[in-house]
Amino acid sequence: MRATINTIGQYEGQTVTLGCWLANKRSSGKIAFLQLRDGTGYIQGVVAKDEIGESDFQQAKDMGQESSLYVTGEVRADDRAPSGYELTVHDVEIIQDTQDYPITPKEHGTEFLMDHRHLWIRSSRQHAILKIRDVIIQATYRFFKENGFTKIDPPILTANSAEGTTNLFHTKYFDEDAFLSQSGQLYLEAAALAFKRVFSFGPTFRAEKSKTRRHLIEFWMIEPEMAFCDHEESLDIQEAYVVAITQAVLEEAKAELQTLGRDLAPLENIQAPFPRIRYDEAIERLQKKGFDISWGEDLGAPHETEIASQFEKPVFITHYPQAIKAFYMKPEPGNPDVALCADLIAPEGYGEIIGGSERIDDYELLAERFKEHQLSEEAYQWYLELRQYGSVPHSGFGLGLERTVAWLSGTEHVRETIPFPRLLNRLYP
């Protein structure tokens, strides 16, 4: 009967057939040990010459790394095996004998591995990272469904920018200018006024010429928007969401975390509430640590890392100066120079994973912001009309999937947290 490695325990003592690839092998006299993978897990197949015959045994020994095959054998419990089981092989049917596989157990440079990303994702480490990504994605859909959110898909081609910046990819939309979306937020605000709680989950594009370990050109964002929701309630929802995906990874990706050698203690500590400090306090903390930074300046990666190091959980930095934040952020009542916003900074030096704010819900104030930021009222007329017809207090946030995968998996660079990364100098494969 056909089986998969992740369900192999159901067939202890039975004979099964696996469709798999040869990840590695070693032999000792009349016994060969095949490290097999089938996309769901790894298992060792033990091949004895006396069991399958000399010709088939020699063929099994000579197979190259990543050869594809059908393996039939008896499932046996083995406490020493990572999966708890191994396969006593009775028959090997080679589908393709692969020779000279480019990625070998020796050390390879990053550029070489990135050039062979289509093959590199087969390795145990890359496989584990991308499985953790999948767990986060599945947990995301569960969380928002359980909390009354409707999935909305904003357009990828847009006529304007959500952030009012110039870091956009330009294209032609027949005889009009268009841009690849850097955020679905504006459209989600419209949807929130129709469905109350909505979220999107899709690719975003930012033409930033950055080479840091935290940046990609194309990345995936989870963006919820909530009507009748103020800044503080939004922070509570952000906390609950981050706790939910962290717990999902701890519970559903144990094997993958083990493969990566991830220290679980910091993740097990991720419980609400998270500490919340105002931007003013963050600046004071940084100045006390010797950083040359003044009120009104934005925080960079070193600043975020320092603040995060002072806490054991993710930390919210709230109430940034309005001048360094987006035009749509609502000012703090009685303090118009400060925005009702927050960035969530992950522990262990992984930086900002969420940015969010309460949105301006007043028509006149938003129209004024358009003028201050020199935004086209014609292009944004539909967005302004949301404040004209049934405007309500509303808030939202965006979580960067790849940065979150990097943090939860303990991966240093975001290029390993997406199947095929798009970087400043990389569009292949």
Automatic annotation (TrEMBL):
<keyword id="KW-0030">Aminoacyl-tRNA synthetase</keyword>
<dbReference type="GO" id="GO:0005524">
    <property type="term" value="F:ATP binding"/>
</dbReference>
<comment type="subunit">
    <text>Homodimer.</text>
</comment>
<keyword id="KW-0648">Protein biosynthesis</keyword>
<keyword id="KW-0175">Coiled coil</keyword>
<dbReference type="GO" id="GO:0003676">
    <property type="term" value="F:nucleic acid binding"/>
</dbReference>
<feature type="coiled-coil region">
    <location>
        <begin position="243"/>
        <end position="270"/>
    </location>
</feature>
<dbReference type="InterPro" id="IPR004365">
    <property type="entry name" value="NA-bd_OB_tRNA"/>
</dbReference>
<dbReference type="GO" id="GO:0140096">
    <property type="term" value="F:catalytic activity, acting on a protein"/>
</dbReference>
<keyword id="KW-0067">ATP-binding</keyword>
<dbReference type="InterPro" id="IPR004522">
    <property type="entry name" value="Asn-tRNA-ligase"/>
</dbReference>
<dbReference type="InterPro" id="IPR012340">
    <property type="entry name" value="NA-bd_OB-fold"/>
</dbReference>
<dbReference type="Pfam" id="PF01336">
    <property type="entry name" value="tRNA_anti-codon"/>
</dbReference>
<dbReference type="InterPro" id="IPR002312">
    <property type="entry name" value="Asp/Asn-tRNA-synth_IIb"/>
</dbReference>
<dbReference type="InterPro" id="IPR004364">
    <property type="entry name" value="Aa-tRNA-synt_II"/>
</dbReference>
<feature type="domain" description="Aminoacyl-transfer RNA synthetases class-II family profile">
    <location>
        <begin position="130"/>
        <end position="429"/>
    </location>
</feature>
<dbReference type="GO" id="GO:0006421">
    <property type="term" value="P:asparaginyl-tRNA aminoacylation"/>
</dbReference>
<keyword id="KW-0436">Ligase</keyword>
<comment type="similarity">
    <text>Belongs to the class-II aminoacyl-tRNA synthetase family.</text>
</comment>
<dbReference type="GO" id="GO:0005737">
    <property type="term" value="C:cytoplasm"/>
</dbReference>
<protein>
    <recommendedName>
        <fullName>Asparagine--tRNA ligase</fullName>
        <ecNumber>6.1.1.22</ecNumber>
    </recommendedName>
</protein>
<dbReference type="GO" id="GO:0004816">
    <property type="term" value="F:asparagine-tRNA ligase activity"/>
</dbReference>
<dbReference type="Pfam" id="PF00152">
    <property type="entry name" value="tRNA-synt_2"/>
</dbReference>
<dbReference type="GO" id="GO:0016740">
    <property type="term" value="F:transferase activity"/>
</dbReference>
<keyword id="KW-0547">Nucleotide-binding</keyword>
<dbReference type="InterPro" id="IPR045864">
    <property type="entry name" value="aa-tRNA-synth_II/BPL/LPL"/>
</dbReference>
<keyword id="KW-0963">Cytoplasm</keyword>
<dbReference type="InterPro" id="IPR006195">
    <property type="entry name" value="aa-tRNA-synth_II"/>
</dbReference>
